[in-house]
């Protein structure tokens, strides 16, 4: 029996790093880089490469619906891939997001990967990195009698039981010289959304909007100070808070308002989701 000799060269390459050539707009919001994590050769002379592609959002805003295009060797065949939707046409490999990495948060990066074989041992070359939309992380809104800014940040997200869960932190900043009280924040959500958990506020959903109101310890916002609250939203599809409108209103007073204490400071279930 003929002995098969397969040369397996698994090498973590830090020194051999190929950075994609990028064809972007002047803003250069997205950058991408390609590196070979490992490679080996079979008895027929084909070279196999395990490729890692990092896509970095250099802006402070959310970027969504990104696309990376790579020039591949003419005889390249894709064997395996992960964290992306891969399509090879001729020598052009197009990589698009899957549901859980559609959005790239500001100043962060994601990684996708694939394994391919070809006669040549050349690395894929960058052709284009683009995105469909760039979304602001926060919105400034005016309240009655003064100014409050609202900043909505997505902390994390996960999938469970066929549902998407998004945890976000909302910061309300009182930029006036008066006390702000009786605040109400409205955050847009997609159809079918429900509240999974909430803290620092009482939250309900009506007409595709989360209505968040204060509990006793977030009731009053002192001049030039902030309060924060958190919400976990359950949805049928990926929820990107920056795609939806956010508004906030509040009353303002020169004197510090008295605190009205609530028996229940947290809303940790969705029983009130359909109440206004």
The tally of helices reads 0
Q: Give the uncertain stretches in residue-range form.
A: 1-27, 137-145, 265-276
How many β-strands, per DSSP? 22
Backbone structural class: mainly beta
Query: Mean pLDDT, rounded to whole units?
Result: 80
Radius of gyration: 25 Å
Q: In whole angstroms, how far apart are the ends?
A: 77 Å
* Proportion in helices: under 10%
Order of helices and strands: EEEEEEEEEEEEEEEEEEEEEE
Major sheet characteristics: 6 strands, antiparallel
Portion of residues in beta strands equals: over 45%
General form: elongated
Characterize the structure shown.
- The N and C termini lie far apart (77 Å).
- The protein has 276 residues and is an all-beta fold.
- The protein contains no helices and 22 strands.
- The strands form five sheets. Strands 1, 2, 3, 4, 7 and 11 form a six-stranded antiparallel sheet that branches. The protein has a five-stranded antiparallel sheet with strand order 14-15-16-21-18, with no helix packed on it.
- It has strands spanning 7-9, 17-18, 30-41, 47-57, 62-64, 67-71, 77-82, 85-89, 92-96, 103-104, 108-118, 125-130, 133-135, 138-143, 146-160, 163-174, 179-188, 194-199, 201-206, 209-214, 225-235, 246-253.
- The chain is 0% helix and 56% strand.
């Amino acid at each position: 029996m003929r002995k098969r000799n397969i040369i397996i060269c698994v090498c973590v390459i830090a020194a051999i790093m190929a950075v994609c050539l990028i064809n972007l707009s002047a803003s250069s919001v997205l950058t991408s880089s390609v590196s070979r994590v490992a490679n080996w050769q079979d008895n027929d002379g084909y070279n196999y490469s395990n490729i890692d592609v990092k896509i970095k959002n250099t802006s402070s805003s959310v970027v969504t619906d990104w696309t990376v295009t790579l020039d591949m060797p003419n005889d390249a065949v894709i064997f395996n891939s992960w964290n992306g939707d891969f399509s090879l046409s001729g020598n052009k490999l197009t990589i698009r997001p899957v549901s859980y990495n559609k959005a790239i948060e500001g100043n962060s990066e994601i990684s996708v990967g694939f394994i391919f074989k070809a006669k040549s041992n050349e690395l894929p070359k960058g052709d284009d990195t683009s995105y469909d939309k760039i979304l602001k992380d926060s919105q400034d809104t005016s309240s009655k009698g003064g100014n409050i800014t609202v900043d909505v940040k997505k902390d994390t997200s996960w999938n469970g039981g066929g549902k998407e869960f998004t945890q976000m932190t909302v910061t309300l900043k009182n930029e006036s010289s008066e006390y702000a009280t009786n605040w109400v924040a409205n955050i847009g959500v997609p159809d079918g959304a429900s509240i999974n958990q909430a803290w620092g506020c009482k939250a309900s959903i009506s007409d595709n909007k989360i209505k968040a109101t204060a509990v006793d310890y977030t009731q009053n916002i002192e001049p030039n100070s902030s309060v924060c609250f958190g919400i976990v939203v359950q949805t049928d599809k990926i929820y990107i808070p920056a795609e939806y409108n956010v508004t906030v209103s509040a009353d303002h007073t020169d004197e510090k308002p008295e605190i009205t204490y609530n028996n229940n400071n947290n809303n940790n279930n969705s029983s009130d989701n359909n109440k206004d």
